[in-house]
Design goal:
With about 600 residues, the chain is an alpha+beta fold. It has 20 helices and 28 strands.
């Protein structure tokens, strides 16, 4: 039987020959540069069979490859097995970059195709420049999947809702004013936004067009003269349209986006070329002056206001109650043989759904037992998952969406006897998590400058991990939010007051086990001195950390004090919402070391 991936590659190659193309690049994004995308835009997944959220496929007339990062090396190797698709381990020094690979595979006057509707403008401009040095043309006019993907899903038509100012803390009109004020500081009189989570934040709308993230497929344009939401108007009720109108927002059909872009002229448009498509960028650039800068709206969105911060604090209590009940169930169910990696996610969703303001999961639960714990973004399914046995460790990364906040938390627990190597790795991860948690740093510090605090203990033992340490989290929005991050790679965006960030170091032993411990944190003021403002992190997550694998002798007195203090806070905040039996169980789990 012919391999399905190979068959689909063959269909694409026929398309290339018919259109005089010698290669085609398929990214993981959609027309809005989203991480999670509607099924209609899952072209990279369709052609490769690779289900991870990040990766790029390149197909030439005789070769095919997938570039993805270390989170997915094991997963990609499994999912590509049996096909001609070659795995390229992205971000490793020995791995060739896509432009350099194309320069080797192609010759003068060859043409590389991309769908300009789904390719980042910034990346496309960079790629075009690099290929032109070898006289290779970049062509952005084609979407081959319209022709070769016969059963392609339709674009979603889910209804839009409004999020109350009770939760957002600010009306849309006020947010628009702040965004325009920031744009004017960089010399622009209007702003174009294509990222759905930013539009959802700006206009206080929510939807369900993509899995896990409460956003709606849309574009937005704001200026002193008019504010427009480009959206499938079937999704907007008359009541919501009227509410938006009162906030100064006009609803225009999504299908009219290109017409509008063709009409606007003589404006200075603030945009972020990394957050909109190549085709939209080119359409705006034809008649307008561009101010290409880090998204001013995303920066404002990442700084949580008082209502949002309080919302996170409330949510963490409810989420912590659900997690407490889950781990109580897990402890009893594993010895009885009732737990699989798959039903871990089902149980977590069931318990979270009983909490107030719960909407859904913030991502598909990662529950990796034994060797599967070493696969960073492993997602079990009902037909292909491990039974959790009363031995070794289970890694669980999960989260919930609530009207008043989004959660993301990882705990690794011993479900039975563990080895000394497991204990050592577990303790090193915990030391790293505490090291970053306790950071105090001056204003204008970048995430790359404090990333090593989570790695120092591991580095001293010759151990490292390949993913970033922290990412922003949206407020009832995307669980992965920029612009800031904590990772070794340089990012010019500094950590600012009000920013949420995760703290999630890990150690992964291929084919053996994985360990990761993750809390969410909020950036707050630590002190003001003669040397300026200094910041620190407030831990938001409320869930016990399993101490059975901890090697106490490896911990410093300061680390033990932090862990004991944290556990006291967890118990004090969660216990009023628990039964007597649950209180007793949590009291034991949070007892001081």
């Amino acid at each position: 039987m012919e391999n399905q991936t190979n068959h689909r590659i063959a269909l694409l190659r026929n398309f290339l020959r018919e259109n005089n193309l010698q290669a085609f690049i398929i990214p993981s994004t959609d027309a809005h540069m989203s991480e999670y995308i509607p099924a209609y835009r899952e072209s990279r997944r369709w052609i490769s069979g690779f289900t991870g959220s990040a990766g790029t496929v390149v197909v030439t007339l005789d070769k095919a490859g997938l570039w993805t990062d270390s989170r997915y090396f094991l997963q990609a190797a499994d999912e590509l097995a049996g096909s001609e698709m070659v795995l390229f381990k992205d971000r490793l020094p020995e791995t060739i970059r896509i432009p350099d690979w194309l320069k080797i595979e192609l010759t003068d006057n060859d043409r590389v195709g991309i769908d300009g509707n789904v390719y980042s403008a910034k990346e496309a401009l960079k790629l075009k420049s690099e290929l032109e040095t070898e006289k290779i043309a970049l062509v952005s006019d084609f979407d081959p999947f319209e022709e070769i993907w016969n059963d392609r899903p339709a674009l979603p038509k889910n209804p839009v809702s409004l999020l109350s100012v009770e939760f957002t803390g600010e009306a849309a009109r006020q947010k628009i004013e702040r965004v325009l004020a920031e744009a004017e500081k960089v010399g622009a009189d209007s702003v174009w936004i294509s990222t759905p989570d930013t539009i959802a934040w700006l206009f206080n709308i929510r939807g369900c067009d993509v899995p896990y993230n409460p956003v709606v497929v849309s574009h937005a344009f704001v200026s002193r003269n008019e504010n427009i939401l480009f959206i499938d108007t079937d999704k907007i009720s008359l009541t919501i349209a009227e509410s938006l109108r009162k906030e100064g927002i006009k609803v225009v059909a999504y299908s009219r986006t290109n017409d509008f872009l063709a009409e606007i002229c003589n404006l200075s448009v603030c945009l972020d070329s990394s957050r909109l498509s190549y085709n939209v960028y080119n359409a705006i650039a034809k008649r307008n002056w561009l101010v290409d800068t880090l998204s001013v709206a995303d920066m404002l969105k990442s700084i949580k206001n008082g209502a949002e911060a309080e919302g996170f604090r409330r949510v963490m209590v409810r989420d912590g109650v659900a997690l407490t009940r889950f781990f109580m169930w897990l402890e009893k169910a594993v010895p009885e043989g009732l737990v699989t990696e798959y039903n871990v996610g089902l149980k977590l969703k069931e318990l979270r759904s009983k909490q107030a303001n719960f909407v859904g999961e913030s991502f598909s639960t990662i529950a990796g037992y034994a060797a599967n714990g070493a696969i960073n973004h492993y997602h079990p399914d009902a037909e292909n998952c491990l039974d959790v046995k009363p031995e070794g460790m289970l890694l669980i990364d999960s989260g919930g969406q609530y009207f008043d906040g989004t959660t993301d938390i990882t705990r690794t627990v011993a479900v039975g006897a563990v080895t000394e190597e497991m204990k050592k790795d577990y303790t090193l991860v915990l030391k790293g998590m505490i090291g970053l948690t306790k950071a105090v740093f001056p204003a204008r510090t970048r995430g790359s400058q404090i990333d090593m605090l989570a790695r120092k203990a591991m580095w001293e033992h010759g151990i490292n991990y390949g993913h970033g340490t922290g990412h922003g989290v949206g407020h009832y929005l995307n669980v992965h939010e920029g612009l800031h991050s904590i990772r070794p790679e340089e990012n010019p965006v500094t950590i600012r007051l009000g920013m949420t960030v995760t703290n999630e170091p890990g150690i992964y032993r291929d084919h053996k086990y994985g360990v990761r411990t993750e809390n969410m944190m909020l950036t707050i003021l630590a002190m003001n001195t003669d040397y300026g403002d200094f910041y620190q992190f407030e831990t938001l997550s409320l869930c016990y950390i399993d101490t059975t694998p901890v090697i106490k002798e490896m911990m410093t007195s300061e680390e033990l004090a932090w862990l004991n203090d944290y556990h006291q806070i967890v118990y004090e905040k969660l216990s009023p919402h628990l039964s007597d039996q649950e209180k007793a169980w949590l009291k034991n789990k949070t007892s001081a070391l």
